Amino acid sequence: MSSDFILDRGPAEYFHGRKAIIDTFNSALEVFRKKNKGTTFLIQGAPGAGKTALLDVLSTQAKSNGWEVADIAIEDLYNPASMAQSLGEAYLINSEIALKAGITFIEGQVVGHVAGHATPKRILKRVAPEYGLILVLDEAQRLNNISDGSESHIAASDTLDVIHNGKLKRPVLLLTAGLGTTEAAYGSLGISRFMRKCRVHLGCLSHESTCAVIRDFLFHKGGVSNPPLQWIETIAERTHGWPQHIISYADPAAKYLASHQTPNDEGLHMVLQQGRAEQIEYYKIRVKGIDKKKRQILAKFFANVPLGETIEFEDIMSVLESEYPPEVAEALFNKALERGIIDEREDGDYGIPIPSFHSWLVDEYAKGED
For the chain, N or C: smaller number of CB within 10 Å? Predict the structure, then answer.
């Protein structure tokens, strides 16, 4: 079993929960279509929270409501040719304008006319349908990679501005997701305020939704018509509702049952072992890039924070700045946020998103040698 490949990224095989977010998004679709405007719908969360899976579900919801949906890349925000291609449009240059600009063409090249549409925002104004367009941008924390003050930065800011503030005279929404630094990345491009219900911090699933996902794995993939409650409840308890961990346990459980058919204690023990190994591997990836001393400082701080509880930004920074200069302390905080060691909650406080990760970090680094 340990050699089995687990597909734990992308759209979910079995999706449950997030009902409040889905309902809010569908409501936003109605409102902005009626108002002929748009905005940005931001989903932010630590790695493994299920952001990409939720984007897929929301995209499907939009399509079922008659919206056109297009996946875009960060480059599309500042590159008109890239934006046009993502929207299924050929980006062709007016030959006369091109020649005046000193652009030469290979003999026989077909050159069309798109004069007046030489920026992404103008392309959007031209091609966005009256019935609505959803632009889907995943891994949006990479907006930080656009050099501040560059032409690309200026063009991306202009594009985001017309979408976010509903200036396209069409219902156009940017549905976007990214890690904990994503909101700050948008801030660097001039998008500093999101509508309250259009800014979502993604956390754990409820116990009910967690069990429903596990049950689907065991029923559909494991071939068990009546999945054992003991397996479902035991696995759910180990995952703490974290989508990444649900897959890490439920997928091998389904594969075991598919080949053995009989649920038993020995099989469950094997599944729990593999799931735990996947959990620990996930935790090791999360702390990668942070040296041991910094891990110990974070762990010792959170050793005094109860599982599931949060603390204020100032409290974390006061501890980090007692060990490092302000710029190093800030970089460590941002790294911890980016790696999913901590995440921001709706009230603006911060905590470790998964209780089992909290326990592992403390056990591994707070109790070791100084």
Answer: C
pLDDT the model gives residue 108 = 47
Task: Give the C-alpha separation, 248 to 239, whole Å.
Answer: 9
Q: Of all residues in the chain, what percent carry a pLDDT higher than 90?
A: 73
Cα–Cα distance for residue pair 78/161, rounded to 1 Å:
12
- Residues ≥6 apart with Cβ < 8 Å to 60: none
pLDDT at residue 368 in the model:
56
Q: Are 46 and 87 in contact (CB under 8 A)?
A: no
* Residue 340, pLDDT score: 87
Q: With residue 275 as reference, give the H or E element that holds it.
A: helix 265-287
DSSP state of 144: G
Nearest CA to 320 among 310, 334, 307? 334
Distance CA 351, CA 358 (A): 9
Contacts of 205 (CB under 8 A, 6+ apart): 16, 17, 18, 50, 213, 241, 242, 243, 246
Q: Identify the burial level of 227 via C-beta atoms within 10 angstroms of its C-beta, where 0-12 means exposed, 13-18 middle and 19 or more buried.
A: buried
Nearest residue to 80 via CA among 170, 175, 156: 156
Q: If you write DSSP's letter for every residue of 83-94 in order, what string do you get?
A: HHHHTT------
Count the Cβ atoms, other than its own, within 10 Å of residue 121.
Answer: 20
Structure-token pair, residue 27? 């409501």
pLDDT average, residue stretch 197-206:
92
Cα–Cα distance measured from residue 221 to residue 254, given in angstroms and rounded to the nearest whole number: 6
d(CA 162, CA 172): 9
Residue for token digits 């579900």?
57
Q: What is the pLDDT of residues 62-107, one digit of tens each?
A: 999 999 999 999 999 999 888 988 998 766 555 555 455 444 444 5
| Bridge partner residues of 202 (DSSP) | 45
Which of 297, 306, 312 is closest to 350 using CA atoms? 312
Q: Range with the lowest mean pLDDT among 50-54, 65-69, 123-127, 295-299?
A: 123-127
CA-based torsion, 288, 289, 293, 298: positive or negative: negative
Ordered alpha helix ranges (H), 94-194: 95-100, 120-127, 151-164, 182-187
What is the rounded distance in angstroms from the CA atom of residue 354 to the CA atom of residue 244? Answer: 11
